[in-house]
């Protein structure tokens, strides 16, 4: 059974995409991308990019995230190992399967991790990073392969971050090629995202597309915080200022705004001090109250919106 959890709103390049929960697999599924964690869904909520399908789902997902992160005993696998075709367990599609240590031909080819019958070394059947190919590996191979998987997933995250600000994977690849030609070396995925985001932010601001600019700055702040471990406060402040400019353009500078927190146990004392306060848009633009400069959470989750 599939349950709709949330839908991406108009502040992102993923507007209309859904997050569902598949009960059979006990997984959250991001449309067009695949499984994500419960914490991943909450991260999108923190950025203000999703609308929950119904009341109470945020709390349920938060409880699920706590369960995901809690230590649990390792399950005992009682089923037979997944069989892999001999061709898929070798570097090429054809040819003999050999021990990665001593090079002896293995016939029949191993269909799971096992010891070599000749040298006695443990051969690990692993998936080659970024592919569906299965290959016998040594311990050293596994370490290199794990590092390659890390680079693969980091690149994927950079592409997804680019999509969240309205850029396509094709935009990412073109920018990567442009920077490689300019720098005479292959740029890191983070450099590519940052280049795209800087350009998109400047363009959005120049055209007065303040809501889009706010989304770009917020995603840049999230990238700094999650991928670099740096403070996102400056960029989150730029995101809130852009949001205020959007409100000023549609409602005027004398419209009043209120600070909204997440109303949970993680709201810090500094952000609690803003609860119930209101400002004119002009006042908030002059001295943005959100994100609070003394927020203890590192990544302030508070937002500003019109007083209705």
Question: Your description of this structure?
Answer:
The protein has 308 residues and is an alpha+beta fold. Among the domains are: 2-68, no CATH class; 83-137, no CATH class. The chain contains 9 helices and 11 strands. It has helices at residues 38-46, 57-69, 139-164, 169-183, 189-206, 210-228, 233-251, 269-272, 281-286; strands spanning 2-8, 18-22, 27-30, 34-36, 50-52, 114-115, 122-127, 134-137, 256-260, 278-280, 303-306. The longest helix is centred in the middle third of the chain and has 26 residues, at 139-164. It is elongated and about 80 Å long. The model is unreliable at 71-93 (pLDDT under 50).
Q: How helix-rich are the residues, as a percent range?
A: 40-55%
Largest sheet: 5 strands, antiparallel
Strand order of the largest sheet: 4-3-2-1-5
Radius of gyration: 24 Å
Describe the structure concisely.
The chain is of the alpha+beta class and 308 residues long. The protein has helices at residues 38-46, 57-69, 139-164, 169-183, 189-206, 210-228, 233-251, 269-272, 281-286; strands at residues 2-8, 18-22, 27-30, 34-36, 50-52, 114-115, 122-127, 134-137, 256-260, 278-280, 303-306.
């Amino acid at each position: 059974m599939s349950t709709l959890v949330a839908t991406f709103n108009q502040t992102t390049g993923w507007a209309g995409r859904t997050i569902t929960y598949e009960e059979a697999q006990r997984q959250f599924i991001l449309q067009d991308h695949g499984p994500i964690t419960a914490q991943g869904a909450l991260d999108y909520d923190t950025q203000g990019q999703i609308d929950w399908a119904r009341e109470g789902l945020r709390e349920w997902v938060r409880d699920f995230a706590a369960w995901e992160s809690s230590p649990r005993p390792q399950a005992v696998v009682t089923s037979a190992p997944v069989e892999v075709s001999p061709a898929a367990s070798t570097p090429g599609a054809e040819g003999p399967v050999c021990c990665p240590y001593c090079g002896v031909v293995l016939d029949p080819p191993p269909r799971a991790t096992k010891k070599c019958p000749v040298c006695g070394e443990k051969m690990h059947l692993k998936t080659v990073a970024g592919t569906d190919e299965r290959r016998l590996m040594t311990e050293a191979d596994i370490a290199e392969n794990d590092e390659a998987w890390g680079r693969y997933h980091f690149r994927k995250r950079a592409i997804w971050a680019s999509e969240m600000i309205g850029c396509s994977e094709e935009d990412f690849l073109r920018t990567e090629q442009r920077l490689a030609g300019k720098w005479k070396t292959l740029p890191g995925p983070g450099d590519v995202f940052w280049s795209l985001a800087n350009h998109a932010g400047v363009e959005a601001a120049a055209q007065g597309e303040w809501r889009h600019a706010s989304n770009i700055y917020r995603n840049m702040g999230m990238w700094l915080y999650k991928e670099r471990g740096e403070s996102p406060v400056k960029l989150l402040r730029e995101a809130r200022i852009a949001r205020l400019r959007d409100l000023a353009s549609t409602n005027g500078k004398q419209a009043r705004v209120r600070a909204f927190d997440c109303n949970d146990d993680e709201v810090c004392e500094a952000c609690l001090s803003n609860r119930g306060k209101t400002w004119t848009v002009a006042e908030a633009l002059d001295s943005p109250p959100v994100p609070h400069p003394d927020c203890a959470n590192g990544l302030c989750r508070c937002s500003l919106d019109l007083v209705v």
